[in-house]
């Protein structure tokens, strides 16, 4: 009986590992993540976005492909001459798909806040009253979901820095958050290897906020 139970345990373990590790998915994601680093223009950006969307449509249980597609859509809105509102709206649609797969995910929540920041930047005078508190609330939720997420703390630091400058206040709160963010990035970097698929962006933003504190 013990032999039978041990054999069944091995079979279930093998099946679970086979389903948890998908070499084709991981290979495709690594290729697209590497391609992200070489984007020079809008056409290349759209090509990489489309690649992530195709992965998402093929692997419907994974949130990361939609996440990266939305992230690139957001960066494109900041970086290139495009209809920024349209790009941010499309990014949010992609995030809604990711959110359905992985609700209450800190990384997804941070990126939603980043998109809201983008919408705010398009027209801060008319949108500030509505979107500034929403962005702060969203980043606050991301921190609550995962206090070890450096992007959550860093993006909150950026918002605090902007709010302090707007109201003529001191940068102490933003500086403190940025320093915490840099500490969290150092912890994250210790985990990163060639098979790491999770988001790693944001350290530059933390350094920029911290650099203004000197």
Provide an overview of this structure.
Residues 1-20 form the signal peptide. Keywords: Signal. The protein is mainly α. The protein contains ten helices and no strands. Helix 4 packs parallel to helix 6. The chain is globular.
Give descriptors for this structure.
Tetratricopeptide repeat protein; mainly alpha; TPR-like_helical_dom_sf; 2 domains; 214 residues
How many structural domains in the coordinates?
2
Q: What is the helical fraction, as a range of percent?
A: over 70%
Task: Sketch the major β-sheet.
Answer: none
Distance between the termini: 69 Å
The geometry reads as globular
- What string gives the helices and strands in order? HHHHHHHHHH
Mean pLDDT: 91
Output the number of helix runs. Answer: 10
Strand proportion? under 5%
Global Rg = 20 Å
Short description:
The protein has 214 residues and is mainly α.
Which helices and strands occur, and which strands form pairs?
Elements: H1 2-20, H2 23-36, H3 42-58, H4 64-79, H5 84-101, H6 106-122, H7 124-145, H8 150-167, H9 172-189, H10 203-211
Helix pairs in contact: 2-3, 3-4, 4-5, 4-6, 5-6, 6-7, 6-8, 7-8, 8-9, 8-10, 9-10
């Amino acid at each position: 009986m013990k032999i039978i139970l041990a054999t069944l345990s091995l079979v279930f373990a093998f099946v679970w590992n086979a389903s948890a590790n998908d070499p084709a998915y991981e290979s495709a994601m690594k290729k697209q993540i590497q391609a992200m680093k070489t984007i020079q223009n809008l056409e290349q950006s759209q090509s990489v976005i489309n690649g992530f969307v195709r992965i998402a449509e093929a692997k419907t249980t994974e949130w990361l492909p939609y996440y990266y597609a939305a992230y690139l859509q957001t960066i494109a809105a900041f970086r290139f001459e495009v209809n920024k509102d349209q790009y941010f709206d499309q990014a949010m649609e992609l995030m809604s798909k990711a959110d359905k797969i992985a609700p209450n995910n800190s990384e997804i929540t941070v990126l939603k806040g980043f998109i809201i920041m983008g919408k705010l930047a398009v027209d801060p005078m008319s949108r500030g009253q509505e979107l500034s508190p929403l962005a702060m609330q969203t980043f606050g939720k991301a921190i609550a979901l995962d206090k070890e997420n450096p992007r959550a703390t860093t993006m909150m630091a950026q918002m605090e820095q902007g709010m302090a400058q707007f109201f003529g206040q001191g940068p102490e709160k933003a500086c403190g958050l940025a320093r915490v963010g840099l500490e969290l990035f150092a912890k994250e970097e210790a985990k990163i290897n060639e098979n790491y698929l999770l988001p790693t962006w944001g350290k530059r933003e933390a350094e920029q906020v911290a650099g203004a504190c000197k």
